[in-house]
Structure prediction request, 276 residues.
Amino acid sequence: MTEHPTEAPLLPLSTPHCAVRRQGPIVTVEMDRPEARNALSTDMLVGMADAFAYIAAEPEVRVGVLTGAGGVFCAGADLKGMGRPSDDPRVRARAAEIEDFHWKGLLRQDRPPKPLVSAVEGPAVAGGTELVVGTDVRIAGEGAVLGLYEARRGLFPMGGCAIRVPRQIPYAHAMEMLLTGRSYTAREAADIGLVTRVVPDGGALEEAMRVAHRIAACGPLAVQAVLRVHRETEGMPEEEALKVSDAVGWEVMASQDAKEGARAFAEKRAPTFTGE
Prediction:
């Protein structure tokens, strides 16, 4: 039985508002500021930027899980203290070293080339919804609340949702979400395709970990190739997109992992993928 992700030791790149843990091929990134409904802070965004870079760089890491502490995902930016420097010297140093750490932490840029699964409980609004939209598989508890509130406050969704949401869900639903700034229940979000599925409250992380383990059991080259082709061909005509898909796909088909997958199927056993 795999230990619960919050029982794994913290990685050194964790910060006061971001707990990063690793269990084999899975890295869990937990926004950990429940007293402020996990509102985004410098401590949180630096930790997340480092965590996503770690997921990208570590060859044996195959998937990341993003969640929030205290039954809350993320209530968006801390409008009062967003620009306040951290009290932690290491975090202040990293904030100075990481170019655009806030955009990287918010998954606006340099998203890992590996899948991210979000486990959403409670509020996931404004910047919280932008984080959800930056992930690939999204599990929501029944009581989760999502929404892009920026227009209601005279603000703009700077995390990229004005572009991403209309590409991910039907246009009319995307425009209603962006232009009205209204709240969405987890069920409503699932109905329009913003989240993958809804589970009982308190069960989002457990289900997200199940999904992460399923992804981690697949061939990493194949998984990353699917993400790469999707991201690189958005907006391309099909004929051009297929050329990109073929170039990437034939590399995967010629890999040792592809041979191992065929052998394992013939031998009726689980494959052992190495990413080669």
About this structure: Residues 5-216 form a domain with the 2-enoyl-CoA Hydratase; Chain A, domain 1 fold (CATH 3.90.226.10). The chain is about 40% helix and 15% strand. The longest helix spans residues 42-57. The mean pLDDT is 95.
